[in-house]
Amino acid sequence: MSKSDPGDEDHPGLCQSFHMQLDHVAYAVTNAELADTVQRLGNELGVAFIDGGKHPRAGTRNFILPLATGQYIEIVAPIDHPAAETAPFGQAVRARAEAGGGWMGWVVAVDDMKPIEARIGRTAGDGHRQRPGGQDLTWKQIGVTDLIAEPILPYFIKWDDMAFHPSLGGTSDVAITEFAISGDRDSLTSWLGDSPENLLADIALNWVEDHTVGLTSVTFKTAKGSVTID
Description:
Helices cover about 25% and strands about 35% of the residues. With about 230 residues, the chain is an alpha+beta fold. It has a domain at about 20-175: Roll (2,3-Dihydroxybiphenyl 1,2-Dioxygenase, domain 1), CATH 3.10.180.10. The strands form two sheets. The chain has an eight-stranded mixed sheet. It has a four-stranded mixed sheet with strand order 10-9-11-12. Strand 6 (about 125-130) and strand 7 form a beta hairpin. The longest helix is centred in the N-terminal third of the chain and has 15 residues, at about 30-45. The chain is globular. Residues about 1-15 have low confidence and may be disordered.
């Protein structure tokens, strides 16, 4: 959770009431690997993932795991759909999957998208997911193209109705305890408008030297003990 100083000259677009927090982490694989990955990560964490449905505008589908702390894990894969080649989110998922798969990145929830739009200089786009039961989830998002260019950067999301947030309804006691991340700390801080340590609060941040820029591993507290997924 973060509140910025309205007098901060480095980030004049933010206001005191602006609030942001970790929303979820995304793990990308090919569609052929999706079922096995859902089973494997579920076994490692000791809980079962839920079929999340499809993103029609992005050409992707996902499985999710609600976490005990109000976030969730997303395992996402491109499907055979033109949007996976043209939509930014589909492009990001496909590129990470075809590069061997793994953590695609992390996502920050905000309660007001306008300060982010003002700071980045463009308008947020619409997000949409169809759950298997037919229910639609909708949101605004911005920054996926920046994630593609610099994978250390999260993208930002504002849910239209928090009553349907994917973290709700689960019974998992799994929680994120640590991020291992590689890349330019100053670039990430400037992008967030705050230090990543402040934003991630109770999650330990381990900066590593790695040939892969971005989120390199996530450690979880589980009923089976500490589990790290690369």
